[in-house]
Amino acid sequence: MDMDIEHSRLLHLTRPELVALSIFLSYFLLIIFLFVLIAYSLWRNSGGLNGHQRTAVRVFSSLAASSFGFTWYYMIGFLLWSFRTFESSHYTATSQYELDGLSRLTTWLVHSDLFEQAWSIVCTGHMNWWWSEKLCLFTVGYWTIFLATEGRTRSIPHLWAYMLLGQVVAISVAANLCHVAISLSPAPQLKPTTSPPLILWLSVCASLVTVVFSPYTTEGTFLPNLLIMHFFIVLPLIFPLKTSGKSYATSTIYAAVALFSIALHTWTTGRALLALPQHMRSLAGFAQFAVEIFYSHPAQSSISWDVVWTFISLSAWLYLSPVDKSTNVSDAKWAGKKEE
Fold first, then answer.
1. DSSP three-state, residue 306
2. Please, which residues have CB within 8 angstroms of residue 28's CB and are 6 or more apart in sequence?
3. Which of 46, 81, 137, 148 stands the most exposed, by the fewest C-beta atoms within 10 Å?
4. Is the separation of the CB atoms in 159 and 148 below 8 Å?
5. What is the rounded CA–CA span in Å between residue 247 and residue 251?
6. pLDDT in tens, 257-288
7. Contact between residue 244 and residue 262 where contact means Cβ atoms under 8 Å apart
8. From CA 186, how far away is CA 53, in angstroms rounded?
9. Reported pTM
């Protein structure tokens, strides 16, 4: 009987309910699609690995699984929080149960902008933004450059999928899977050095501008600013670009982004420190409040754990990286004879 009611209700959804439900389900279908697409490309390159490659693949696969578990434990917590908060503010304790499950779900989805809701939580408040800005700077700066240059040098397929997966799941998950892909790839051949294409410079600069303005946006400019940030970091990964290994110009854009990011985050740290009560303006007080904000809300915990796991991933990458630092000497670990 209940199934018949749900089926009948599904056939009589209003247009806004159908659109909201379709977007919600499409989000999870997109995640599944991206995971399958990336997993298939990794599987195709998984044969004949040497010892160092197998170690790297195990490490980064484990980190991807761990980061997914931590970030999505809290992401699911955010969805539940949003649903319960909506119902508690719109229904009485008894009236909500008079509606069927599908009606409760679609009503919540129609009246809740989950994307903007989650991001507004992690961007509102000096310490909240102190955590979130780290991930934004890493993503629009280092990781965008890394994917557009190193990813193409290593001929990694579907680079856009890694960036998109990072946006809809977690940057740490996508970064670790990208590290798996590079670990599976053969050593690149030396190529004539070229400067990064103009579109990469423009995309990174435009995205960094959106990061600068994020704490100062209004209710009307917050979402457009956020969408512009997400749009520009995908652009260099969609269009075919001719990039070679790390050149002087590529090192320059890395250095420029690093210096800018350090300066901006130092400013953000200072603002967060000055926003604290006088008695907490110390290293211990700052750290205590940072931990409190870390667990202050499921959405905040999700992005904060993403920051932590991204740092762990980057540290592991610097240790296990096959990437050439100057003359491709480090790639000898990858270019050696494969173990049967």
1. helix
2. none
3. 46
4. yes
5. 6
6. 999 999 999 999 999 999 999 999 999 999 99
7. no
8. 10
9. 0.87
Phi-psi label, residue 48: left if phi above 0, alpha if psi -120 to 50, beta otherwise: left
| Six-digit token string for 261 | 């990011």
User: From residue 268, how far is each of 137, 200, 265 by CA, in Å?
Assistant: 12, 26, 5
- Mention every residue, 6+ apart, whose C-beta is less than 8 A from residue 46: 57, 184
Per-residue burial over 226-263, b if 16 or more Cβ lie within 10 Å, else e, is beebbebbbbbbeeebebbbbbeebeebbeebeebbee
Q: Judge residue 134's burial from the number of C-beta atoms within 10 Å of its C-beta, 0-12 exposed, 13-18 middle, 19 or more buried.
A: buried
Our measurement of the distance from residue 245's CA atom to the centroid of its chain's CA atoms, rounded to an integer in Å, reads 25
Instruction: Give the model confidence (pLDDT) of 304-325 as tens digits.
Output: 999 999 999 999 999 988 644 4
Q: How many CB atoms lie within 10 A of CB 191?
A: 12
Q: Give the whole-angstrom CA distance, residue 210 versus residue 225.
A: 6
pLDDT tens digit string along 66-117?
999 999 999 999 999 999 999 888 765 555 555 667 888 999 999 888 998 9
Cα distance between residue 339 and residue 112, in whole Å:
54
Tokens, residue 95? 């009236």
CA distance 59 to 27: 28
